[in-house]
Predict the structure of Oxysterol-binding protein.
Amino acid sequence: SDHMENIYGYLMKYTNLVTGWQYRFFVLNNDAGLLEYFVNEQSRHLKPRGTLQLAGAVISPSDEDSHTFTVNAASGEQYKLRATDAKERQHWVSRLQICTQHHTEAIGKNNPPLKSRSFSLASQGSANSPGVQRRPSQNAVSFFNVGHHRLPTGKRVPIMQPDHLVDVREMMSQAEGQQRDLIRSIECLPVSGHLTSLDQDLLMLKATSMATMNCLNDCFHILQLQHASQQKGSLPAGTTISWLEPKISLANHFKNGAAQNFPAEINKPASVREEQSIAEPCQLTREPEEINPDEEVEDICDNKEDDLGAVEEQRSVILHLLSQLKLGMDLTRVVLPTFILEKRSLLEMYADFMSHPDLFIAITNGTTPEERMIRFVEYYLTSFHEGRKGAIAKKPYNPIIGETFHCSWRMPKGDVAADVGSNFSAHSPSEQVTLSKDLEGQTEPDYYTVKFVAEQVSHHPPVSGFYAECVERKMCVNAHVWTKSKFLGMSIGVTMVGEGLLSLLEHGEEYTFSLPCAYARSILTVPWVELGGKVNINCAKTGYSASINFQTKPFYGGKLHRVTGEVKQNTTNTVVCRVQGEWNSMLEFTYSNGETKYVDLAKLSVTRKRVRPLEKQGPFESRRLWQHVTESLRDGDIDKATEHKRALEERQRNEERLRAETETPWCTKYFLKEGDGWVYHKPLWKTVSVAQTQQTDTN
């Protein structure tokens, strides 16, 4: 090909968190199908510092920016590279892809297929071991030839008969059994020595064999549909040929280096036995519990997720996981490896969105409907930054059905001035709204209290309900969220299906809102979070609405974490405020009077939430429920964390199975199903209306 010329030049190469990026001189050797690099151009005549076989490699432009790309070799080794600009990146990516395709195709064309053979790992220490037989010259060509067969040229494949399908099914069953034996043999190898379970070639063999079996199952399904169409003359109406879910259980293959069987019950830690022995939830009291905020203390946990640590060490496991996933695959039922988890439940993450209670309370202080809508938009946009714990994208725990989380915030009244969160020179200062009467014999506190409760109300689909209220300001927010996650190749997308409702009872206003999608990008290198999608905020009573667009970064150019929006009066179609900036750093608000306000999220004060100590929490409250997983992750003991996590998940499955057998419906504790949504059992709008009715009757 005219494009198969050798190219060379300087690129930046990412080494690790300590060393970071370094300039290296790279050479693309098209004839040999190699990407080599040297310290500098002058050392080009010396031995390369590193070499990648490009046959079977994957060249991926990064989502992070327009300069970065990765080269993932079939051996599992990866180079993360950065060009000087988008044009140079495209030049390297296109040449590398052409070279990769050429040498990958040459494997099948130029090398005779090997006869079928099987390796026995039983004699791992003998001279016949694959590890002993491995030669230094072994490369991707020999690796890809294993099990490769071609049909004789010119022969037509006969129409498959029904008994042939039965034969194929039997052969595939045998192959699946052999594949399971292979996986088991690899995982039973020691973690140290000449041939280990962490050997890169064996990990790749493990991943590709599983991917091959999944693909064969899909092909067999297509053959069955094709046979049915031949019998009937055409495919049945409405039939679609689609890729299936993996036929091999994912959960049993994430742990490398040891057998998957856990110790016998007698040897399990007491904490694991406790997790498995908690009674079935509906046998516990499902009566709502009134949490006394005075029992809560200021939270001292600081679980920042800035350490790549285990993610870098376990990259082979991530490659293994990715080999089993398909584009668009629903990840709801996929058990993910423990080391990618952050040390909190999803329910607590929703609570962390409330870390600026001063801005939340200040919404109701707005003197006009326009000002209150703008204040809500400001609070909404500033909530996502604190919801993330650090720059590294990790996944919170999937809540167990019936799991709850409680907390509160205390905000000094002096810190919630009437003009907090706004910049309206055209409007008169907001007047302080009269507070509700104190209870008899009690002194009025000098702070506002915002209480929060969340509950996992459904397991399939996974739905969480959460509710927050400030009784003194007669305001509350109720929301339900169904998280739907999909595999998108080099990223994972999470759609937040659901709706929230903010009620300002002093003004008789209700604001409906939705949530953006979230994306975990660059999951093979340094994962990071991006928000995307359009959300709407509406107040039917006042006729004000807001449209907010979280922009994902385009392939070329553009900035990360961009957000734009506008607040509009629907009746007159007048835009009264525009906002732009980055949702995790700086926001710019431009008002209809021409004034501009900047909000630096890094300088916003964060109010620590208050939670009850573990010993006072119930067995299904998030922190107590996940305490052993969290402690193990904090100690860096991934195996122990996995064991505790598995115990919780197994208990949930057993309880779900028991409810299905006895036809016992699940009983929620704090939230009630209303239509398609979930509503807190005692929302403030109900208690306030009851109190007003009683007061009217008394008068």
Notes: The domain at 7-108 is CATH 2.30.29.30 (PH-domain like).
